[in-house]
Description:
By secondary structure, the chain is of the alpha/beta class. Helix content is about 25%, strand content about 15%. CIS-heme D hydroxychlorin gamma-spirolactone 17R, 18S (HDE) binds near residues 97 and 382.
Amino acid sequence: MADADSPSNTNSLHHHAPGAGSVTPQSVNGAAGELHQNVPAKADHKDGTSHLTDNFGHRISDNQNSLRAGERGPTLLEDFILREKIFHFDHERIPERIVHARGTGAHGVFECTKAIPELTKASIFQKAGGTCPVFVRFSTVAGGAGSIDTPRDVRGFAVKLYTESGNWDLVGNNIPVFFIQDAIKFPDLVHSVKMEADRGYPQAASAHDTFWDFVGLMPETMHMIMWAMSDRAIPRSFRMMEGFGVHSFRFINAKGEGRFVKFHWKPVLGIESTTWDEAVKIAGADPDFHRRDLFEAIDAGDFPQWDLGVQIFDEAWASRQPYDVLDATKLIPEEEIPVEIIGRMTLNRNVDNFFAETEQVAFLPTNIIPGIDFTNDPLLQGRLFSYLDTQKSRLGTTNFHQIPINAPKCPFHNFQRDGLMQTLVPTGRANYEPNSLAEAGENGGPRACPETGFTSFEANAERNDPTEKLRVRAELFADHYSQARLFYRSQTENEQAHIASALVFELSKVQLDHVRSRVVSRLRNIDENLAKRVAAGLAIEMPEKAKAAKVPIDMKPSDALSIQKQAKQTLAGRKVGILFAEGSDKAAIDKLKGDIEKAGGSAFLVAPKVGGIKVKGGTLKADGQLAGSPSVLFDAVASILMPDQAEKLTKDGAAVQWFMDAFGHCKTIAHCNGTKVILEKANVEPDEGVVPIESFMNVGVKRHWAREPKVRDLA
Ligand code: HDE
């Protein structure tokens, strides 16, 4: 409970104005009617705290005791202070997002680095150096708001750009394709992956009957399944993921010419993933692993960045491809259409309040600006309806756009009025249009502008006949396997083994035999060898090959699809755990820490006790206690120990596991001579990634994948 004297009584509600909207809560309330709860309170007491009040400004004299009839009597109904406090608390939660419930957000800035007026008239791309504020929310998809950060799952990558022409929301994922082709299947997909309806589990896991039952019956999921079973679905950090707009969108230039565009976010820190064993252990060691990682990086001034890239193509090019660009289960290989970088996003400010900003942020794929338009992708079309609808249900009002995180930072004016939780106070009589009030000297309100207002691209270029009403899929949507094969065959041997093993793991959790077999029968269309590995891993008979609606073709493998083929050798943004104990050499620890930090990484000191222990050269505090700081939390480990302390640690399971896991997860292990006794106990065998402390900076942070067959039996 809060102490009556504690500074926690300070009213510190900050309020960020929604910007220069001509009608904003600020302007309508005016200086005199300022919302006092929205400004940091002035100090009223000697200790610097301000008066505690209820929501209507009444000062509170006692925040510890409710009002009672006598010392041991019942509580009185007239205690409006108690009632208001508990009433408000009882209603603190709003419905969590039906998908993407678990997530975390941050503010930042987007800068256009290359003007592309020939492609789009979108204001943000007219001038190199032009900037706008952004808010980004990263998320998992299947789990509830309180679930872990590291399940095997797709990650949401939703960006809200507050441009001068209004908000542009690019609501994407860290995987460039999707499970389904048509919005009408989305509720089925989500029902199947979420907790099973009768038993209420498993939470945040796709490894169960209903999901794989759906997958086995819906071959269009196969391409996305390859991605979801790959290491992309167990990212090391939000800062080290790619982001994709997924659908084909449209760019329109000032002449009205339209081209297709696919959006890509490329992380400056490179793409990095965990291993499955690591992801599972991180879930226990730190369920908030990803949100903590993002928060701490931004807090430390180590701002994550992504380059925005575009793939541009036209109708003629699209019509020559063996797939349909309106099909969200297909990607466009970067080797076919290169990704051209046109901007950079930097996340540089954590939220002040998680609920007000991250929980209440409402992304809308319908938020686009002149110069950008939708296409007829049937999945995108469904999303255009869904998000507005969902916000009304989550935030309870059509006025959710007035919440500061959702409001545009450019002026907005229209004749929409009233509604639940209206915070704007428009003046005058003009709440309809046309009106001629201006002729009488009154403010007649805003008017539409055909020149600068949003206009839709003429859809006639898209090979459709708008007079037909059909429930069909276009012919090329029937090829479900060619790109799944492209993805699988573009991976390194080691990445292929991860995919096969992930399939074995997930299907092992499936209890219905026919579901397992059906999935394997589909894999045969992707790659016979993959199907064989999975069948052998499950110890089931190879089922007959599933009939493919369209016989898959072989596409040219693409290196851009593999994480390992484009791995960045860098310490930037990476975290190294340094283990020390009593008597360790402080100078050696300081030197290593300094070198790591100079190279852009961070060092985290781990010791059996945290408060400060005697080392050679002084006393040293640890950042984390050994049992609470397993090596799965670091990208590489180092240890500087005196032999007697190392000997003692061989009896501590946490210490032995520290090295065993670092070795098992193919990380660099830098050690001093003293540590050798624990390394032996942990079965750490010498290899190019197990090095003396002095060589750490030469080897750096990387995964020594050649070690993997020694430590893990992969499918
Ligand atoms: Fe979403 N999706 N989605 N989705 N989605 C939501 O909107 C939906 C799809 C994505 O951080 C919901 O505000 C339908 C594809 C992200 O707040 C909901 C369909 C992609 C986020 C919804 C899709 C996404 C959402 C839930 C099929 C990748 C989190 C809460 C037609 C391109 C945004 C909300 C955040 C959230 C519906 C498919 C990405 C229910 C109907 C494809 C990143 O409206």
